[in-house]
Amino acid sequence: MKPRRLDDTGRFWSPGIRTGVEPGSEFHRVEYFGPVLGILTAATLDEAIDLQNATDFGLTAGLHTLDPSELETWLERVEAGNLYVNRGITGAIVRRQPFGGWKRSAVGAGGKAGGPNYLVHLGSWAPSPVTPTSTGAVSAPVSRLIAAAHDGAGSSGALAAIAAADEAAWSASFGRSIDVSQVGLERNVFRYRPVPVTVRLAEGGSPVELLRVLAAGLRAGAPLTVSSAIGLSAGVRAALGSASVTQASDADFLASASRGELTTSRVRLVGPAEARGQLAIALGGDPSVAVFAAPVTPSPRLELLPFLREQAVTVTAHRFGNPDAWSEGVL
């Protein structure tokens, strides 16, 4: 069904439906804001998710199902900031469904409008001193990093205290799926998902600050690519597990960035203020790369967020007005 022109200006058209859209075609991959719905078909849920994720955008996504296993598969794989199950995928409400996308549907830090972190990235922050205190248990990768810091350069006592604060914040909010609205017949769950990040220690940057940033990345479970202007100890490299670790001068790192060779869409930069400007120039203002270059702090919220993407999941929790808890075992 083709759209019809409804006025003389050419700005008002009837909605249309386009069938037979081919995977990988322009209409599949380009984000059109005209009133046209393109339809692709898939033989399986996994194939449908592949098609859904094959675009450079990821604002909203939807699924209709009453099968918990299908929901679990979709929630694990879909790449979008706002997810809707068994309902329409428009009309996000502040606080209930904080709004913001993934990939090229977001620019910069990606804090969702109407969410708990939106104001965090609109200000500037300075670190305050940390007094080492008694600490609690931390995740195994972070524990190994603390041990490596103790064996080499760095204050392992301060790092242990900071890591314990990260762990407490993870247990309280960042590692949980939380429905703050509690409207009953609709579940509105806010959660965090790890995102690949390049951590760069520039020339003149602090190795101690690098360890603090790495502790946050490990706690978040983010896939890490580490580039350092100085050599890292064998213990630190071992604590980073499968992370890619390289040593490179600023000139070499910036040249690589200018050639488009960064493998992640986020960079956590540790170093002097001028390093941020140099990286911005090397990237040519590329909006698809978010650079976090603020001073390193002990704050769990400030240091965990670069390694996490926010996601809002809305699930209709009734059938014809009758409460239905089918999704609670999944999310």
Automatic annotation (TrEMBL):
Keywords: NAD, Oxidoreductase. InterPro entries: Ald_DH/histidinol_DH, Ald_DH_C, Ald_DH_N, Aldehyde_DH_dom, Proline_metab_enzyme. Residues 7-115 form the Aldehyde dehydrogenase domain. It comes from the Bacteria. The keyword Metal-binding does not apply. The keyword Endoplasmic reticulum does not apply. This is Aldehyde dehydrogenase domain-containing protein. It comes from Frondihabitans sucicola.
